[in-house]
Amino acid sequence: MTLTKDFHKLSPSEVHIRSVDLEGVDTDSDDQVKQFTANKPIFAMVEPEKRSTGRLIMHSMAMFGREFCYAVEAAFVTPVLLSVGLPRSLYSLVWLISPVLGFILQPVIGSASDHCRSRLGKRRPYIISLGVMMVLGMTLYLNGDMVVSAIVKEKSRKQTWAILITMTGVVLFDFSADFIDGPIKAYLFDVCSHQDKERGLRYHAFFTGLGGALGYLTGAIDWGHTELGRLLGSEYQVIYFFSVVVFVIFITIHLCSIPEVPLEKEVSDTTLLLKPRESHSYGTLDKAANDCCKQESYKPKSTSLLGKSNAVSPTVEDPNKQVQRQMTLKSLLKALLSMPSHYLYLCACHLIGWTAFLCNMLFFTDFMGQIVYHGDPYAPHNSTAYLTYERGVEVGCWGLCINAVFSSIYA
Fold first, then answer.
1. Distance in Å from the first CA to the final CA of the chain
2. With helix as H, strand as E and coil as C, how does 277-304 read?
3. CB atoms within 10 A of CB 41
4. What is the pLDDT of residues 274-312, one digit of tens each?
5. Which residue ranges make up each domain of the chain?
6. Fold of 53-258+400-410
């Protein structure tokens, strides 16, 4: 029988069955099968088609939008938390909740993404869901104080609700923004060849820095004295408006960049490749004549990596069965404890580097507002002390903008 397939229509992440012609080969003879299948692996990875530069740039737009919003969060979350009345001893703990949730849920959700059978593909449904959560989180932490002030009139209750809503928004946004990076990278790896993956990652790094620079630049401008600031109500509402518009536009471009084949289609295509050839009469032969054309159902034999003949290589695990293995928190911890020493050193360096970077980035604008400019985030919002604090935060955004520009250049 002949197994043929147009490989260019299949997903690059799919493990394909190599087209082989077994006509004239005695499938019950191990010697003939071994001779025929020598140097012809049954299971093989098919290299995806080359992606254009434009498509890879479109795919990288998600990182631009994500980092734009991330820059706004890094610059303004601490000032916003302090301005709604959160005690100094607690505001750093807000940043702890999201990483803990991510460590617990990431292997579970990541494994669920690998098994997603949506018509949109495996990755895009999760990118859309996390994107919606990011927008909701931004809505809560940048507008929570204003919404609570309009609804709740009692001062003590107003402060409590403002703190709760702002904290919820921060945790929701931070969790989603951290987590969305995984499906975006997996999406790139699923649809690109090795060379395109390298190019795509370079574009990702470049647009990450560029998006962060423009996000910090947006925060560095004093929008309160502009026409747009007076129209929308406050500086935070202007920043929220730009963040949502930029993120929605660029995440939409990302989702339309490179087609993603649904997992359901991948599995069905692979199943078709394994079907034995049958006689099709289309009604032109009567039943008695057609009975002679019936064949016994059998599986073509091949040679496994161990040299043993088998039915489509039982010793080589079926790729459709391989995807059934799911990552859990237990398996993640086991992998961390048993990883090779060189990987352990790499992870330790990664941990130390990010710890130092985040300690500087997340509190830099607050440091500028309180220590350098001697402002007070707890002062009334129309007081000189609070306005001085806001001015220090804006100057801090300029510093972070310069950092992001150089990061983009280095990429």
1. 51
2. CCCCCCCCCCHHHHHHHCCCCCCCEEEC
3. 16
4. 444 444 443 444 444 444 444 444 444 443 433 444 444
5. 53-258+400-410
6. Growth Hormone; Chain: A; (1.20.1250)
